[in-house]
Design brief:
Number of helices: 6
CATH topology: Four Helix Bundle (Hemerythrin (Met), subunit A)
Distance between the termini: 39 Å
CATH superfamily: Formiminotetrahydrofolate cyclodeaminase monomer, up-and-down helical bundle
Helix content: over 70%
CATH class: Mainly Alpha
Strand content: under 5%
Low-confidence stretches: none
Length: 205
Amino acid sequence: MLTEVSIKEYLSKTASGDPLPGGGSAAALNAALGAALTEMVAHLTVGRKGFEAVDAQMRAVRQRAAALRAKLTLDVDRDADAYTRVLAAFKLPKETEAEKADRASAVQDAFKQAALVPLGVARDALAVMELGRAVIAKGNPNAASDGAAGVLAARMAARTAVYNVRINLNSIRDAAFTAELRREAARLETEAEAKEKEILALLSL
């Protein structure tokens, strides 16, 4: 599992000629890092003098960020697993007409899953950005740069994930499925861009 290796080993695997881990896993990892940074700022606010008015809100942010971090950490491997299924589907036999049909179906199903995983990552990355808005606006100002780092990590994750959705859609023949995911990907991309501008405008660094 990618989430069980050291940072050095993960980077080494990414730099190798192996297609895994790739951009999809990196998107999930960046979103998880964004959640962790947001969680940290909330931690540095909870229970601190002068922040009593936002204590309950920061506790809620901390809890939600922790849940997103856990989910996105799993997505680091889910994305790699989805692409592994694509590779496995292409290796299925194709000698008979029945085998060709089964292989084609398996390839299409695998590509659909490979598109759905990063779509979920993009959605969760936007949720992380929204939590980042809260900690930047109301959290401990001494950690504002950490909050910004979390927002930017999530922002990059959202865009990267959207790109991974689109590249997988190029191989899917289901027109209704691809149209729906393209619309959602475009919406998420537009929303992430707007959130980045709005949130970073709150910074006074």
